[in-house]
Amino acid sequence: MKRLALLTSGGDAPGMNAAIRAIVLASHYFDVQPLGYRHGFNGLLEQEYRHLDTEDVYNIIQRGGTILKSARCQPFTTQEGAQLAARNLNEAKVDGLIIIGGDGSFRGAEHLSRYWQGNIIGLPGTIDNDINGTDATIGYYTAIDTALESIDKVRDTADAFERIFLIEVMGRHAGFIGLSAGVCSGAEQVLLPELYPDGLPDPQELADHIRRAQKIRGKCSYIMVMSENIWPGGATDLANELQTRTGIECRPVILGHVQRGGSPVSLDRMLASKLGAYAVEAMIAGKSGIMIGERNQQLVEVPLQQSWNKSKLLDPYLVKIQRQVFDLVKNGNNY
Ligand SMILES: Nc1ncnc2c1ncn2[C@@H]1O[C@H](COP(=O)(O)OP(=O)(O)OP(=O)(O)O)[C@@H](O)[C@H]1O
Ligand SMILES: O=P(O)(O)OC[C@H]1O[C@](O)(CO)[C@@H](O)[C@@H]1O
Q: Which residue, among 298, 224, 222, 228, has the nearest Cα to 256 in the 3D structure?
């Protein structure tokens, strides 16, 4: 292993820079030359890369985003795209490629491996935490805290005005951010894709829950945390629907891309640092076709396909306590 390349792909996530830093420092430590490709898989198609020195990763561990930039790349998904990427990697004399991204990026890794003989290792980097085989993904913990900071603030004003708020968080297909932010903010209701596998939540049930809260507690604040995509038209349309059904004002708040930014929290920096350094060691040991993850504080090597061919499950105990034990409205409690 003489020359190792790395790129960040898909939605950026806080901690990607910490992973880049770990890979670059470990590469230099083990006498391997690191190349950084920019703009995800686009960089492979455009030969947009440069050598990374230790000074390139100085002072980035605390920064959100990714110094290599990230992107989605449709042309890469074709046979011609992957063949071009393979040719370019060979031309740049790259022996191994580390891809930091989500499950889509890992599918891209598999696609590339059909045309390129070099070693490929994935590092789970996405705020969604929807990658099977690792307890957490780089960026997830920061996204929860970012969402929480906003939800706590909304609660203050909701409490003062005794209002109903629907707060939309990220996670198109996965409710990890929604569940964690809901539990940690003491939300009265959480709407997550995993809870409604066969369709939409019943708006009448949701309206009844709000009405019952007010019957038990009197006029009061009420927070519903919902994953994006759970309702057509999102929080705005659902707020309108529930306002019509309850006759009570319901306000939407869409947190959006703020959840992707910011300085990574310590857990994300730690995870990224471990996974990044280990990925280099695994490369040098000749490993390929794997994702490096962490389970029960142990580093694990997971075949890339396993990272997406099985859905990662929400913590069932957390779901249970949120929906049963903590549902004071359903339990008829006025606190
Ligand atoms: N089935 C596939 N075959 C080949 N390449 C793919 C495939 N799926 C995704 N990719 C490549 O990976 C890129 C990133 O994938 P995607 O947009 O799904 O993000 P991701 O890595 O899942 O991250 P996140 O979920 O955090 O946004 C795509 O733009 C595409 O270039
Ligand atoms: O920024 P984009 O391309 O609209 O992607 C948004 C999606 O990316 C994610 O932030 C994951 O990175 C999802 O939670 C969200 O649905």
A: 228
- CA–CA distances in Å: residue 120 to residues 71, 129, 279, 299, 306: 19, 21, 10, 17, 15
Which domains does the chain show, CATH number per domain? 3-139+264-307 (3.40.50.450), 140-260 (3.40.50.460)
> Could you tell me the pLDDT band of residue 172, with boundaries at 50, 70 and 90?
confident
3-state DSSP assignment of residue 123: strand
Is the distance from the beta carbon of residue 73 to the nearest atom of ligand 1 less than 6 Å?
A: yes
Q: What does pTM read for this prediction?
A: 0.97
Q: Is 128 a catalytic residue?
A: yes
70 neighbors 12 (Cβ within 8 angstroms): yes
- Is the Cβ atom of 11 under 6 angstroms away from ligand 1? yes
The residues that bridge with 223 in the sheet, in sequence order, are 165
ipTM above 0.95, yes or no: yes
Distance CA 111, CA 3 (A): 21
Task: Express each pLDDT in 55-83 by its tens digit.
Answer: 999 999 999 999 999 999 999 999 999 99
Separation CA 182–CA 152 (nearest Å): 11
